[in-house]
Amino acid sequence: MLCVPTYVAPSRIAGVGLFAGQDLEGGLVIWRFTEGVDWRLDADMVASLPEPFGSKLRHYLYRDESGMYVLCGDNAKFMNHDDDPNCDDSGEVFTVTRRAIRAGEELTCDYRLFDVDVKREGLGFYAGASKPDEIHQMEREPFV
Q: Taking the domain 6-129, which CATH number applies?
C-alpha cells in the first residue's frame, strides 16, 4: 500500500504513471506490501482468468520469488519501469526512494529487481513488447 500521497497522470514513459503528490526525501518508504490491500495470486488462478481480462490484468501483476503473482491494490500498480529509477524495490516487500523526489515527478522502479518473469525473460516479457527496448514506446490501457 502506498504510504505517501500520489496521483496517476500521463507518463513520458508509457501511457500513465504514478507521480509524487508532495516532495519526498531520499530513503523514504513509499510502498509496503499490505495484506487486505495488496493481493497474492497463485499461477493457476491467474491462468484461469477469462480473456481479455486476464491479459489486461497481467500488465499490473508481478511474480515474486515464491512464484506468487502480486497485485498492488492501489495506484502503485501504475509505477513504470526506468533503467535509472528514482525508487528502489530490492527490499521485496517495500519500496524506498533512492534520492529526493520533487512533487509532480514520476515515481519509477526497475522491474528487473523484483519480477522473476522479467529477470528470466527481460523487459519485453512484462510489457508484451517484441524487443526489450520497446518497453519505453508501449502505451498501456489504464485498468482500474
A: 2.170.270.10
